[in-house]
Model the fold of this input.
Amino acid sequence: MYVCLCNGVTERDIHEAIAEGASTLEEVAYCTGAGTRCGGCVAAVTALIEAKIESREDEPRRSRRRVPIMA
Done:
């Protein structure tokens, strides 16, 4: 689904930018161009960023398995 019609940015493009480390509107805009023309998509882009960050926080953290050291 297109989020930014001006620049042809899809929801998938935004998710990929976030997966690569973008975590703010400015960073996503830099990576994708979303929100840099008319600004009509800024609320949608912001909502996608916040939803993705919240979902990351809800994921259980994987603990490292400790391996005993043989002496």
